[in-house]
């Protein structure tokens, strides 16, 4: 039995070996025939079957190779198409020309280069022709460089040489825009100021109440003005402003560009006016001049006038302070102490109110007194005129060489009279007046404020002007106060008809000078 088993096992092993080699060779032959190859591999397999199994690829690997080759062919085909499309685009002519804007503002004398774009992007650029419709306003070079010549508007036409493509742009040659500054001014008001722009017709101011809101027209301002006060605003609200300059060109205005500024309005007033109701000094017993009716004192009229004026100024938004409040006594020994107190408080304007008197019952009218001489600010360019026949009755000016002051502040003035040096002081009894021919800024503003007030009263025809209405005189309250200052002599208490007017409350209400003060501060 064991013999038969051994024989059967040997037979199985041999059959298995023959079967494997036989079918492996057939597969190799079939593979070669499919590819059209020779039968050499068959002989190799026949010689060594194990070596064939190691080097021959499986069907799955062969299929993967075919798929990879197909993918590479598709990728190469796509890349080739992209390159062909890109090449065609670069070589294609532009279908359109464009600019980033339809209109532009440039300054007179300014140059600007037009950046013309060819579409679609990457298309071949073409030669362009530039032409200005009005070369007196703006010129354009062959390279598209525009230059502003004169204020006005013109159109720049742009086209290709074959005239198939074209575009145009509107060019305005405009003046410079004003550089503006904002500051809180009167209560609930904002002062808008700017640098002067030369060669223009005027300015226009616009405002809005929110960053994203639309601008509203506020006012037009003349070319000589450089500020405006926007009033009656809402406290703690932010306001936005723009100021444009403009020139008139034929039938239209040409406006500048602008730069926006903003500021919050506040209730606090930043403009201070000091009011000085004259007299009531010397422990309250200085009443001033006595009226022709023998019962009305000047000081009473001063107090009533200042009370009405203060009320109106406060309503306008001014901060009002006093040398003494109406109907109260003065706490200073003299006017020089009063002036030093005013300098300490440093108001924006000092206003002294008085009423005049004369030995002549016919004398009447108002007068606004101011001084170009500011004792503590400027002592250069001083002259003196003396109201005496010997010195020309106030019509001649004599150069001041020096001024000496006593302990009380009283001046002694030394001046050139021919080859000699003369002197004059209050003790000589001669009337004189010191004039500054090169006034400081405060003195210039002094005259400006006094002029506005005098003109307001004269225009109203409430009273006639006395001595021309505007008079230069170096009174202590005008020459020794550092702030712009004037003194109003509101009328004559020695004239019966005028005194009756001055005592009338309705007349006094019309007379008060706040409009002239408003104009001085640029408030309309």
TrEMBL record:
Keyword annotations: Hydrolase
One GO term describing the cellular component: outer membrane-bounded periplasmic space
InterPro entries: Big_2, FN3_dom, FN3_sf, Ig-like_fold, Invasin/intimin_cell_adhesion, MurNAc-LAA_cat, N-acetylmuramoyl_amidase_3
Record-linked Pfam families: Amidase_3, Big_2
GO molecular function: N-acetylmuramoyl-L-alanine amidase activity
Region (Disordered): 34-87
Gene3D superfamilies hit by this protein: 2.60.40.1080, Immunoglobulins (2.60.40.10), Zn-dependent exopeptidases (3.40.630.40)
One Gene Ontology term from the biological process aspect of the record: peptidoglycan catabolic process
Record protein name field: Fibronectin type-III domain-containing protein
Organism: Anaerofustis stercorihominis
Taxonomic lineage: Bacteria, Bacillati, Bacillota, Clostridia, Eubacteriales
């Amino acid at each position: 039995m064991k013999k038969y088993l051994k024989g059967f096992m040997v037979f199985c092993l041999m059959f298995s070996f023959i079967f494997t080699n036989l079918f492996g060779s057939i597969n190799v032959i079939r593979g070669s025939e499919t590819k059209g190859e020779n039968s050499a591999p068959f002989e190799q397999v026949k010689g060594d079957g194990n070596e064939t199994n190691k080097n021959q690829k499986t069907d799955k690997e062969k299929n993967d190779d075919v798929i990879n080759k197909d993918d590479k062919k598709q990728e190469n085909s796509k890349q080739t198409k992209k390159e062909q499309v890109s090449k065609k685009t670069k070589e294609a002519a532009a279908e359109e020309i464009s600019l980033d804007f339809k209109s532009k503002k440039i300054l007179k004398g300014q140059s600007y280069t037009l950046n013309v774009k060819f579409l679609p992007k990457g298309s071949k650029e073409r030669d362009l022709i530039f032409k200005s419709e009005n070369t007196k306003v703006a010129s354009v070079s062959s390279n598209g460089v525009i230059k502003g010549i004169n204020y006005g508007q013109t159109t720049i036409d742009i086209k290709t040489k074959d005239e198939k493509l074209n575009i145009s742009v509107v060019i305005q040659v405009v003046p410079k825009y004003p550089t503006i500054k904002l500051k809180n001014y009167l209560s609930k008001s904002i002062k808008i100021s700017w640098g002067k722009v030369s060669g223009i017709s005027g300015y226009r101011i616009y405002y809005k109440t929110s960053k994203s809101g639309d601008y509203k027209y506020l006012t037009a301002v003349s070319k000589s003005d450089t500020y405006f006060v926007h009033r009656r605003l809402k406290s703690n609200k932010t306001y936005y402003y723009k100021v444009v300059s403009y020139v008139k060109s034929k039938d239209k205005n040409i406006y500048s560009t602008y730069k926006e500024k903003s500021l919050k309005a506040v209730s606090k007033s930043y403009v201070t006016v000091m009011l000085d109701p004259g007299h009531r000094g010397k422990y309250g017993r200085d009443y001033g001049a006595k009226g022709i009716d023998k019962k009305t004192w000047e000081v009473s009229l001063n107090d009533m006038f200042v009370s009405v004026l203060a009320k109106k100024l406060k309503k306008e938004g001014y901060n009002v302070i006093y040398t003494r409040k109406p109907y109260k006594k003065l706490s200073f020994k003299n006017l020089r102490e009063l002036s030093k107190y005013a300098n300490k408080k440093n108001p924006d304007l000092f206003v002294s109110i008085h009423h005049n008197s004369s030995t002549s019952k016919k004398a009447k009218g108002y007068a606004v007194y101011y001084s170009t001489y500011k004792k503590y600010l400027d002592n250069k360019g001083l002259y003196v005129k003396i109201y005496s026949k010997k010195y020309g009755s106030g019509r001649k000016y004599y150069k001041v060489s020096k001024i000496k002051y006593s302990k009380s502040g009283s001046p002694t003035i030394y001046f050139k009279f021919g080859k000699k040096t003369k002197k004059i002081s209050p003790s000589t009894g001669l009337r004189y007046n010191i004039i500054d021919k090169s006034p400081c800024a405060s003195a210039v503003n002094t005259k400006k404020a006094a002029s506005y007030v005098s003109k307001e009263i004269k225009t109203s025809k409430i009273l006639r002007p006395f001595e021309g209405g505007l008079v230069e005189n170096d009174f202590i309250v005008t020459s020794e106060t550092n702030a712009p200052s004037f003194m109003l002599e509101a009328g004559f208490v020695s004239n019966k008809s005028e005194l009756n007017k001055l005592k009338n409350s309705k007349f006094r209400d019309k007379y008060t000078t706040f409009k002239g003060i408003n104009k001085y501060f640029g408030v309309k």
